[in-house]
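Hi V.,

You were right to ask for the full record rather than a summary. Here it is.
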Amino acid sequence: MANPTIGHIHCPICNETGEVRRYATGTKKLYWHCGCGQIRPTTFNGQKFINENATFIGENGTPLPPVTDEKPVNGKLTETEQKTEKKKGLFDMLFADDEAE
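Predicted structure:
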């Protein structure tokens, strides 16, 4: 069974529209399937190409809005940002440069 389609991309090899999918192995890497077969660029630049050229779609097939780097108006971190914020350990507390923050 194929992985779910999460977007579409124009394939520069066969000039067809391909379906963007995510690896089933738990990684966040993307690939596309088109007339050429499966195109799986695993390098940073390959993944960047997909992210910059694909049109991602929601569960109902409608295009998703583009991702922005803007912070919320109220200045609070979103739930995802709170989870990804780096936790400081003992080493950081003892040797971190306070001026770097």
